[in-house]
């Protein structure tokens, strides 16, 4: 077991003696979902079926006004054709990219497997304008909706809609708030390969915009520098971010990778919303297969598969109980696109039904490839 987890546990055990007890409680929240999915190339072709039973448990403790801690678990039971047809599927799901391996395949059989993962385990100490958080946590520096090149600690895939909490990092994060509208942050993360990401960020408000600048070192390989903003132009929300990645070992030989993205969104009186976002990358990755879009070890440098990418989404709250939407992404370099309609309906208090369809089409290896994924999900939250 790595040293920092031992430190977290020792601090939790002795926190009551180190600090006065004026507030103490523990809260529990989470959800239970069952999701049936199918994957197919065309309606005339073979179908791959999978069922996922997913339970999430979120524990949060308040030791006093200055100390909180959290432990959050994902418990997932996978059954179906993917488990039977792909021998490495369980191993892929059970892989933990963190510095400490906190993902376990408790049961692994020919037709099913059960995985438990701890994706949050942190201790938070705050005093006046200072805050320190130690452990597995989410460090979200992104400003935009789909692609987040500023999110250097734990980037995620837009297509992984069932993981709303997003991945966490094994990190130490220090925050200082000079004023109510500004913040200075320094964070250091280590992963399973002992690669280090360390960076600082300064965020402030000017001209009605939240503006940030960041710089540091990513995955023990790249020097990075970036900026981001969020604000409005009239009735439109306007946000964007950009990051430059340059290999440290070949600093004079390459221009590095630049990813810039910006988007607008508009909320209408009928409870509908329209969103657009564009992204540019001078050195996009080559997309070998559609599973790259769901990669669990996605980095902020690996967001682009086309020099230019364009996203659009329309959502509408038809009634207080029913939401519908459709989103699309265009990848010009791949002669490809993504399209995905969604439907969410509240069946009862804390019980929701969702229908999601994801369609991908692109040219890979000189041939046209396409895939469809359809999901039916029932979710109970508590």
What features would you describe in this structure?
The chain has about 375 residues and is mostly beta strands. Helices cover about 5% and strands about 60% of the residues. The protein has three helices and 19 strands. The longest helix is centred in the N-terminal third of the chain and has 16 residues, at about 5-20. It is globular.
Overview features:
globular, 3 helices, 382 residues, mainly beta, 19 strands
Mind sketching the topology for me?
Elements: H1 3-18, E1 25-40, E2 48-64, E3 67-80, H2 81-85, H3 89-93, E4 103-108, E5 112-127, E6 130-137, E7 169-176, E8 183-190, E9 196-206, E10 209-218, E11 222-233, E12 236-247, E13 257-267, E14 272-281, E15 308-317, E16 322-331, E17 336-348, E18 351-364, E19 367-381
Antiparallel strand pairs: 1-2, 1-19, 2-3, 3-5, 4-5, 5-6, 6-7, 7-8, 8-9, 9-10, 10-11, 11-12, 12-13, 13-14, 14-15, 15-16, 16-17, 17-18, 18-19
Q: What is the total tally of β strands?
A: 19
Q: What is the quaternary state of this protein?
A: single chain
Poorly predicted runs of 5 or more residues: none
Global shape: globular
Written as H for each helix and E for each strand, in order along the chain, the element string is HEEEHHEEEEEEEEEEEEEEEE
What is the CA-atom radius of gyration, in angstroms? 22 Å
Summary?
The chain is mainly β and 382 residues long. 7% of the residues lie in helices and 58% in strands.
